[in-house]
Write a structure and sequence with these properties.
The complex is a heterodimer.
Chain A lengths: L4 E10 L2 E11 L4 E5 L6 H9 L6 E10 L2 E2 L5 H7 L4 E4 L13 H13 L3 H14 L5 H5 L8 H13 L5 E5 L7 H18 L2 E5 L3 H7 L2 E6 L2 E7 H6 L4 H8 L19 H5 L9 H4 L2
Parallel strand pairs in A: 3-8, 3-9, 6-7, 7-8
Antiparallel strand pairs in A: 1-2, 1-4, 4-5, 9-10
Helix pairs in contact in A: 3-4, 6-7
Chain B lengths: L1 H46 L37 H37 L1 H16 L2 H12 L3 H29 L1 H8 L4 H37 L11 H10 L5 H29 L6
Helix pairs in contact in B: 1-2, 1-9, 2-3, 2-5, 2-7, 3-5, 4-5, 5-7, 6-7, 7-8, 7-9, 8-9
Classes of the chains: A alpha/beta, B mainly alpha.
Family (chain A): Belongs to the ABC transporter superfamily.
GO molecular function (chain A): ATP binding
Pfam family, one (chain A): oligo_HPY
């Protein structure tokens, strides 16, 4: 079975600084994979590289990004664009700014449907109404006629989720979709993503720094640190028996009601190579791993 | 379907009202002044009391009707050739409005196209367009317009051409900067991620966000176009000599400013009112058009 997304040895540099230093990662059809790491670990950069949204001074220096077996980096621009929004979709981080402020909700979703599926205006309108109902917006017909600033952040995120799943994508990249929302809305959004991905049969790459979210919805996870994969595997395995000291530190830094959180200390750059060495593999250093 | 139609019909009136409220007094005053100017320009043949060229040497340099020695036949008095000042002022508005509308629109078209181009492509495209703008703007505009009008020859077309040639840079520069800003916004990235090409991205997503800014620029530019036309006609290189313009009226009035100050004062008042009106109108409209309320 071809992986929905297969990233192999991806290296990305901003100017002279390497942000991704040989990342490999698979997302199988229908899989939900969590991609975690502290700020600056390169997790968003990976998502952006897949979407072809790298900032201007950034370049891919090595590696391959294959979507359903086809290399996205080698593909013609027009072909890549026809995949975006249709086969590969994004749920962006900040719902407050990710919708065009001067276009009504109905038109934004409608344009997407007409662009990719070639629907007529009327069919697009009908489909848009369905999509909004699917993301639990109660009066879709009223919301269609509203501008983004006239609805709440949670509602906007639901509109963006509806747009992401609108064309039955094979892969949805969720770039910290819950960080900008408050906790009560977060839960609803997660449930929604879970429900829609099942209905549309999409795989999800869930970029987040929230291990709680990963535990809740991801079957497998990848831990990224300073542009390199430190650990990956089934979520339960990684969380219960972390094989790397960094993962354990990440877990210890997660706020919990029953114990004080430990501060996650950044690793000084000159020690990063040491951190990557085998010495920090917990399964090889039993003394540190005793939790 | 019917429900949708009702929903979309039901929402706008309140939005329209909210927009008008956001526009505030600027919008009201601006609209009234601009409307007066445009109405005067369109309907002048209907209500102008006299032919603007008709001379009545027996009643030259009459003061406005309410001053001593004024004649009710000439509401705002007459000039040194006995031509009706009111008629000449309103006929001049016609030239002014025409120049303002056409020149500003053409300058906007060129400027927006180049600005979008520079702002979205960046790199050497941006560099060459930006340097061109810099060089262009280094020329003193009035001097440039006088040179142009002299080279192309007098007439309405050359006045318009001169304004367009000079002032497209104003649009290009602002639109370039704003395009760059809008492209860094998340919604632009989101639009790229749904697979829009650059051209569609600019047309469907970016351009609508530039409209409030463009409206302000257009209004300001119309004011400037009126001023440039006044300057050119003041020095006598605008439209043909027998067409009344505010600039030529000022030039004529200047020679007899001690005997008949109103002949010079009235066109100046017209110019000031039009330019202020256009600026207020543009400003108010920008506030009213912006769906995201910004204080």
């Amino acid at each position: 079975m071809t992986a929905t997304l297969a990233v192999e040895g991806l290296k990305v540099a901003i100017g002279a600084a390497n942000v991704l230093r040989g990342v490999s990662l698979d997302v199988q059809p229908g899989e939900v994979r969590g991609l975690v790491g502290e700020s600056g670990a390169g997790k968003s950069m990976l998502g952006r590289a897949v979407l072809g949204l790298l900032p201007a001074n950034t370049s891919v220096t090595a590696g391959r990004i294959a979507f359903e077996g086809r290399d996205l980096l080698a593909m013609a621009e027009a072909e890549r664009r026809s995949l975006l929004g249709r086969r590969i979709a994004l749920i962006p981080q900040d719902p407050m700014t990710s919708l065009n402020p001067v276009k009504r909700i109905g038109r934004q979703i409608g344009n997407l449907l007409r662009h990719h599926l070639g629907l007529s205006k009327r069919a697009a309108l009908a489909r848009t109404t369905e999509l909004l109902a699917e993301v639990a917006i109660h009066d879709p017909q009223r919301v269609l006629a509203l501008y983004p600033h006239e609805i709440s952040g949670g509602m906007r995120q639901r509109v963006l989720i509806a747009m992401a799943f609108a064309c039955d994508p094979a892969l949805v990249i969720a770039d910290e979709p819950t960080t900008a929302l408050d906790v009560t809305v977060q839960r609803q959004v997660l449930q929604l993503v879970e429900r829609l991905r099942l209905r549309h049969g999409s795989a999800v790459l869930f970029v987040t720094h929230d291990l709680g979210v990963v535990a809740k919805i991801c079957r497998s996870m990848t831990v990224l640190h300073a542009g390199r994969v430190l650990e990956e595997g089934e979520t339960t395995n990684v969380l219960v028996r972390p094989r790397h000291a960094y993962t354990r530190a990440l877990l210890a830094a997660t706020p919990r009601a029953d114990r004080p959180a430990e501060a996650l200390r950044p690793v000084p750059p000159d020690l990063i190579d040491q951190l990557w060495s085998e010495a920090y593999r917990l399964d090889q250093v039993p003394a540190v791993g005793a939790a | 379907m019917a429900d949708i139609a009702i929903a979309s019909l039901a929402a706008p009136p309140s939005r329209l009202l909210a927009g008008l409220r956001r526009g505030g007094p600027r919008l009201w005053i601006g609209t009234v002044l601009v409307a007066l100017l445009v109405l005067a320009a369109i309907f002048v043949p209907v209500f102008a009391p006299h032919d603007p060229l008709e001379q009545d040497l027996m009643s030259a340099q009459l003061p406005p009707a309410w001053m001593t020695g004024g004649d009710h036949a000439y509401l705002l008095g007459t000039d040194s050739l006995g031509r009706c000042v009111l008629s000449r002022l309103t006929y001049s508005a016609r030239t002014a409005v025409m120049v303002a509308l056409i020149a500003a629109t053409l300058a906007a078209l060129i400027g927006v196209a180049l600005g979008l181009f520079a702002g979205s492509f960046g790199g050497w495209v941006d560099q060459s367009i930006s340097r061109l703008i810099d060089v262009w703007m280094a020329f003193p505009p009035v001097l440039l317009s006088i040179v142009l009008a002299t080279v192309i020859g007098a007439g309405l077309t050359s006045v318009i051409a001169a304004i367009v040639v000079i002032d497209w840079t104003r649009f290009a520069r602002v639109i370039r900067a704003e395009t760059m800003v809008q492209l860094t916004r998340d919604y632009a990235a989101a639009a790229q991620v749904i697979g829009l090409s650059r051209a569609r991205l600019l047309r469907l997503e970016i351009l609508p966000n530039l409209v409030p800014l463009l409206v302000t620029l257009l209004a300001v530019e119309m004011g400037i176009a009126i001023l440039v036309e006044v300057i050119l006609s003041f020095v006598g290189i605008s439209v043909a000599g027998d067409t009344p313009t505010w600039g030529s009226m000022i030039a004529e009035g200047r020679q007899i400013v001690y005997q008949a100050p109103w002949i010079m004062a009235l066109p100046i008042a017209c110019i000031i009112t039009s330019v202020i009106g256009l600026n207020l109108f543009g400003d108010g409209l920008r506030l009213a058009l912006d769906p995201v309320q910004r204080s």
